[in-house]
Amino acid sequence: MKNWARARACAVAAALGVAFGMILVPSVGLAKAGVLPGKGVVVQPLKSSLAEETFQTLLVIEALRRLGYALKPIKEVEYATAHVAIANGDGTFMADHWDPLHADFFERAGGDAKIYREGVFSPGALQGYVIDKKTAEKYKITQIDQLKDPRLAKLFDSNDDGMADLAGCNPGWGCEKVIEHQLTAYGLRKTVRHNQGSYSAIIADVIARYKQHKPVLYYTWTPYWVSSVMVPGRDVVWLQVPFSALPGERKDVDTKLPSGQNYGFQANRQRIIAHRPFAEANPAAAKLFQVMQISAADIGAQNLRMRQGEKTSQAIKRHADGWIRAHQKIFDGWIKEALAAAGS
After folding, report:
1. Are the C-beta atoms of residues 335 and 66 closer than 8 Å to each other?
2. How far apart are CA 229 and CA 307, in angstroms?
3. Pairing label, strands 45-47, 75-76
């Protein structure tokens, strides 16, 4: 009788272990039990056309899969459209909301009332204007507004029109509005031309000029592979701005960094944004979006591998899988927290 009672108790305990496994056991066991929180829920990931943001998106996708969600193929739309799509429920999440660069996109799409935004996916992103170190030191150029001088501007003239050619920002990214505003604010309209188009093509021309030992002037951001090819401090230098000057509602924001340097852009952090009704109905996904975090250095390293030729969708998926294996304990910790949120 005692043996029967003990066996039954063990069976009950095992059953409870499965029932409450959402909190305590790995997702593999949960999948077999059919109790994953994402079961039957379809997710539509969005990202911009920037291929280098695929890596971060795939990390989120894989984590959602571990929670049982069904993932549709990634849809590529530019940032402003993506914010509206997520607010309206036409997209579920985007892993590359730049805060505060995309603040206007966020607010115009409905802000917190329509979009869930908690946690920081990747902190410490910088943006600004960069020139080659050789030219900076020879002509003592430290600030972008020094290019009001036609003689200095002509150093960066790549098409013989007498104006400096600034390799700029794609239309629709948000950074282009800052650059356009600052060209006027710093009195550079007559001496600097903002070249826009495909950033990858424009920056390839910049790198070619740099390798020919010609002066270069370009906008860039971190984390991005460009800073691994032309390394700030070694090959190139960031230019400072004479004063803070941002467009629209951020006009009074001080862009000076804690170090005292002012590159004209606020330090950014990449965040995951999601359709708010989805986040509220799916606490596991909401918690996942909140706790996931990856370093700018890891993103930059992956982006450099793409630059070196590993840029197919299969290669990027391999990079994401490799990152997860190398950080398995961290990744499993995210899943555990998400599962706990679903069970609370």
Report:
1. yes
2. 9
3. parallel
48: in domain: yes
Q: How distant, in Å, are the alpha carbons of 193, 305, 306, 330, 335 from that of 327?
A: 44, 18, 20, 5, 13
Cis? peptide before 100, omega within 30° of 0: yes
CB count, 10 Å around CB of 314?
Answer: 9
The model's pLDDT over 18-49, given as tens digits with 9 standing for 90+, comes to: 322 222 233 334 444 458 999 999 999 999 99
With tokens 């829920």, the residue in question is 41
Tally of domains in the chain: 2
Question: Residue type for 2, please?
Answer: K
Whether 334 contacts 288, CB under 8 Å: yes
pLDDT averaged over every residue in the chain: 90
Same domain, 161 and 208: yes
Judged by DSSP in three states, 213 sits in: coil
Amino acid in the structure at residue 240: Q
What are the phi and psi torsion angles at 5 (to 5°)? -65, -40
Full residue range of the structural domain in which residue 62 is found: 41-123+268-343
Whether 280 and 238 map to the same domain: the answer is no
- Per-residue pLDDT of 199-244, as tens digits, reads 989 999 999 999 999 999 999 998 898 998 999 999 999 999 999 9
Asked if 114 contacts 295 with a C-beta cutoff of 8 angstroms, the reply is no
CA-based Rg of the chain, rounded to a whole angstrom? 24
Q: How far apart are alpha carbons 291 and 258 in whole angstroms?
A: 25
Q: Name residue 270's beta-bridge partners.
A: 98, 122
Q: Which of 173, 172, 186, 174 is nearest to 164 (CA)?
A: 186
Could you give the CA distance from residue 93 to residue 273 in angstroms, rounded to a whole number?
5
Distance CA 57, CA 313 (A): 12
